[in-house]
Amino acid sequence: MNKCLENKDGKLKKKKNGNLGGECGACTVSDSPGRMECACPNKIGKNQMSSILLNTFLDVDNQGRLKCSGGTGDIVNERPRE
After folding, report:
1. Regions of the chain short of the pLDDT cut 70
2. With DSSP H G I counted as helix, E B as strand and the rest as coil, what are the percentages for the chain, rounded to 5?
3. Which domains, from first to last, does the chain contain?
4. How does pLDDT run across 46-59, given as a tens digit for each residue?
């Protein structure tokens, strides 16, 4: 996600080479509707919850790598269904 997102005053935003890095924490992803939520610091350093729909910036290429506006990630192996 580091290459896909940035923290913009406490809000997760799509950005090529956004360098999200260690700015936000306590991130969770829900299966439906595929939303990631993180606690991100705003300009005065106070954490606030922010979320973004993953399908607005992520895709999987034909080799199973995650792709976003910022580049390509590692190979993603599908987990077996239980």
Report:
1. 69-82
2. 5, 50, 50
3. 5-75 (2.30.60.10)
4. 999 999 888 888 88
